[in-house]
Amino acid sequence: MNIGYQSDVGAIKRIVLKHARDAFVAGSAIGRQWRPLGYAGPPDFERAVTEYDGFVSLLRRFDMDIAFLPLDPHTGLDSIYTRDAFIVCDKGVILCNMAKVERRDEPAAVETALGEMDLTLHGRVDGAGHIEGGDVVWIDEQTLAVGSGYRTNDAGIRQVRQLLGGCIAELIVVPLPHWRGPQDVFHLMSILSPIDRDLALVYSPLLPVRFREALLSRGIELIDVAGDEFDTMACNVLAVAPRTCVMLPGNPSTRSRLEAAGVEVHEFEASEISLKGAGGPTCLTRPILREYPAD
């Protein structure tokens, strides 16, 4: 098996990344693209490559197979955030249809690379349907939560529900807030990061009440992100295994809350590859195979 286990918390065994050198390409591309993409500032290319090398080295410590998407002339800076372009289920890859116009070519680039990664295409979202991977979260192996907002619409959710027929028991639609408007980088995973089957990191001020209640009713303990650390992406945390996670530095209160719950936390420098483009470790990665210890 080279793909599957419908989870955002099982131990990652295979993962897809796109290196900063192949997403950012060079200073000239950064200069053209960072403002239209809404970056906080232009990433420094050399520093971004160094940061990304450090990120990859950290991930390799967790005994996972890493595949890299290649440089593609039709994609831009945002292609570094590989989670958004496709979804993974036990039947294979589902290509997304990006709402952000500048990212529309990313799913096609992923499709071109599928053969090299020995991955099966299960389907795609197209037409009027839009969905981005940052809005798609596995609550458990049979339950998928999908954020409905500026990046993912009802037509996209309907298509995903159909494509996942036989793979899931429930799909929960989570209405997302306006927050900072349609140009902002805001996904469901901006306010929710699963840490274990019974533990999640959340930003409660923006978490819809009914969804919050649904998580609690399933026995999931919620750790709240420190309020003054939301803007430094404290809620964007990647579980590399149950209760073992990777997060950005500069969020000491949230880190302490995680550690108090028995979570092992690892940090990586990411001012150029994460903070400027508002994409943390979950955004930078697309796990394609996870395992969970037997109950």
Q: Biggest sheet: strands, sense, closure?
A: 3 strands, mixed
Q: Please indicate the percent range of residues in DSSP E strands (runs of 2 or more).
A: 15-25%
Task: Give the proportion of residues in helices.
Answer: 10-25%
Give the number of DSSP strands.
15
Structural class: alpha/beta
Mean pLDDT, all residues: 95
Radius of gyration: 17 Å
Distance, first to last CA: 20 Å
Poorly predicted segments: none
Enumerate the strands of the largest sheet in spatial order, edge to edge or round the barrel: 2-1-15
Q: So what's the overall shape?
A: globular
Number of helical segments? 9
Sequence of secondary-structure elements: EHHHEEEHEEEHEEEHEEEHEHHE
Overall description:
The chain has 295 residues and is of the alpha/beta class. The protein is 25% helix and 24% strand. The chain has helices at residues 20-24, 27-33, 45-60, 106-113, 154-163, 209-217, 252-260, 271-275, 281-284; strands at residues 11-17, 65-68, 86-89, 92-95, 121-124, 136-140, 143-148, 170-175, 192-196, 199-202, 221-224, 238-241, 244-247, 264-267, 286-291. The protein has a three-stranded mixed beta sheet. The protein has a three-stranded mixed beta sheet with strand order 3-4-5, sandwiched between helices. Strand 12 and strand 13 (244-247) form a beta hairpin. The chain is globular, with a radius of gyration of 17 Å.
